[in-house]
Amino acid sequence: MASPFSGVLQLTDLDDFIGPSQECIKPIKVEKKPGNAAAKIRIEDDGSYFQINQDGGSQKLEKAKITLNDCLACSGCVTSAESVLITQQSHKEVYKILKENKAEVPSQQKLVVVSVSPQSRASLAARFNLSIQETAQKLTAFFKQLGVHHVFDTTFSRNFSLLESQREFIQRFKRQKEEKKALPMLASACPGWICYAEKTHGSFIIPYISSTKSPQQVMGSLVKNHFAQEKNVKPSQICHVTVMPCYDKKLEASRQDFFNQEYETRDVDCVITTGEVLQMLEQEGISLCDVEPSPLDTLFSSVVEEEPYGHKGGGSGGYLEHIFRHAAQELFGVHVDEITYKPLKNKDFQEVTLEKDGKVLLQFALAYGFRNIQNLVQKLKRGRCSYHYVEVMACPSGCLNGGGQIRAEGEPSKVLLQRVEQLYDTARTETPEGNAGVEQLYEHWLGGRDSAKAKQALHTQYLAVEKMNTALNIKW
Ligand code: SF4
Fold first, then answer.
1. What gap in Å lies between CA 321 and CA 314, rounded to an integer?
2. Å from CA of 150 to ligand 1 middle
3. Kind of pairing, strands 259-260 and 303-304?
4. 186 phi, psi to nearest 5 deg
5. What mean pLDDT comes out for the span 326-332?
6. From the CA of 192, how far away is ligand 1's center (Å)?
7. Which strands make up the sheet holding 349-356, listed edge to edge?
8. Nearest to 419 by CA among 405, 432, 429, 431
């Protein structure tokens, strides 16, 4: 079984699927009483553990439960068997919530919101041979038939992520002389990369990483804050599910920073992958092709006359292109129309340069996949990184190739990926500045771009994870 997590989060040398890694802080908990000699453990044939007492008796030990939160706080493994780790974040949990809702009177039901990523939509479109628009409409209908109340699109929240990244870049560029680690600014939308950075390069790398929240977590703020207020319900009365192209997004949703202490609720309660949506369709015995389309929700979706819009710049969100164009214009008065990429060692490591009169004004790069990320970090550590911005993504080929996307059946995976990319690119594009709904929300919801509320809703922070000093420390 291949690990569903992105490459940077996998430990390939360990037998990681039998149980948690040997470094795991919670494989088994034994109460040690003072004066006792070393605790003795007996393992039964069925795999259960017994603690042997000094009087010869024994007691069965509770199985340790490992949640994604434990994994985020530990420098040992991240990815054990999915069934061990992911107890709260699965499509089964979605079914459970919908079932509980059906048993309640309407006033006691949770408001169920599903936010779909454009990468997942493209993967489903390729699987069912549908257009992006048909897929969006049929998926909306499918979720609503199950009892979901609203279906949104994270392209909308990505507008905020792009705008905030653009602004942050300009601010960092202007203070690069006083602040050594202001540049290069490293993208923050990929939780696989963030998790790796925090655990392996901690305080060295963190200052370089953009503080802007990913589209998933901006949507979390929108739904659990603005939408809850609009609907006059507590954030905890909303169940917010996202459909994402990777398992790493489950880790992101589980971060402490995205937990609302006051209402004891997460901004994103449950993340399901594109593959899990396919499993849900199979479980219902439905082909997406046969679902009657339903009108698209327009509140938090980039939709024009029933047509979902996207952004320029590739399947990982277009961060490099948007920031590059914006910075060229704002910092140097240069209008950039077409972006020309220069491939370096491979297609997942490319550069984009802005030159004027033979002088390099801006140099950006994209680095996808573990190999290229490692190269980038080494360059930074040796002081040989000349980039101003790097779009860092954990998956080779980026988000359209995420570990949670639908796998190829009867065709090479490269061919499927090409079809997914083509479908993704069929969506008409908008600029984040051009979305009137986003402008209004900055004003009415956030009270302006520089408000404390905007910072809280759209930015986050990172924490270096202390390395555990064991013989098994993994060298990345
Ligand atoms: Fe997920 Fe995209 Fe990062 Fe892959 S590159 S782990 S799909 S966010």
1. 9
2. 25
3. unpaired
4. -105, 140
5. 98
6. 6
7. 185-186, 389-393, 359-368, 349-356, 342-343
8. 405
